[in-house]
Specification:
264 residues; two-stranded antiparallel ribbon; 2 strands; globular
């Protein structure tokens, strides 16, 4: 609901400034198409695909500050979808044999919002005017958005690939060997895949040619990935938090760290 209201306010503000620009209608079509592709590929349920389309709309609304879609977080969002889709289906038969595979209908709306909600809220924020405080806010919000997307990608890829590639799975808090898929369990192969996935999401973002900014966003995403495992090994294992809240909290931390590093 918050994302819906925010989108409505953004559109109303744009409408109050004059006729809606052509790119806005293209954005609506692209967002609807994105949702349709996600649903047709059974990567998400109908409601979840609609939530993905809403996040896509928020991401592309950043064009109101000038610049093309490539200067938004859209390339990172597309990379997230491609990597998580591939990782989820990689070794699916093995995952199904041990009961760790994602449902055939794809992710639920709550799962999509847990992973993408923070990015959607930050995607088009700020009021960009070069050389002003608003410029920093706008840039920091975009960086935090990319960090949240990178963390969500890393979390899914590390979990899905780690279950298939094997190797020792260790509980992050104690180092004890645990079965693959255990909350808070990490493996070398899975973690490396997750870190690489985060790097790819950052590499296609508007910050790719800004080494300091890109490095800070990458570090923030990795911090969020480790925080996810810590929450899994503590709060989730005790039943105090569900997986959706753990994922949401991890994207929040990634966004906060990215913002903090941007302010240095």
């Amino acid at each position: 609901m918050v994302l819906v209201v925010k989108a409505a306010l953004e559109v109303a503000r744009m409408h109050g400034s004059g006729p809606m620009p052509r790119w806005f209608w293209v954005t609506c079509g692209v967002s609807a198409t994105f949702a349709g592709v996600v649903w047709l590929l059974k990567s998400a349920t109908g409601p979840a695909a609609a939530m993905g389309g809403l996040v896509c709309l928020h991401v592309l609304l950043r064009q109101q500050f000038g610049g093309s879609w490539k200067e938004t977080a859209m390339p990172s969002l597309i990379t997230l979808f491609v990597l998580t889709f591939a990782a989820t289906r990689f070794g699916r038969s093995r995952k199904e044999s041990v009961g760790l595979a994602e449902g055939r209908r794809g992710r639920r709306a709550a799962q999509v919002l847990a992973n993408l909600g923070v990015a959607g809220m930050l995607a088009a924020g700020g009021s960009y005017r070069p050389g002003t405080a608003g410029s920093f806010v706008s840039s920091a919000m975009l960086g935090s958005c990319v960090a949240a997307l990178a963390e969500a990608t890393a979390d899914t890829v590390s979990s899905e690939m780690g279950q298939v590639l094997g190797g020792k799975t260790l509980l992050i808090t104690t180092g004890r060997v645990v079965p693959a898929g255990t909350d808070g369990g990490i493996s070398v192969a899975g973690t490396l895949c997750g870190v690489l996935a985060a790097a790819m999401v950052v590499a296609v973002s508007p910050f790719a040619e800004q080494p300091w900014s890109a490095g800070g966003i990458f570090i923030a995403a990795c911090a969020g990935l480790m925080f996810d495992s810590l929450l899994g090994a503590t709060f989730e294992r005790r039943g105090w938090l569900g997986n959706d809240l753990v994922n949401f909290g991890s994207t929040v931390l990634a966004a906060i760290v990215a913002w903090g590093l941007a302010a240095l």
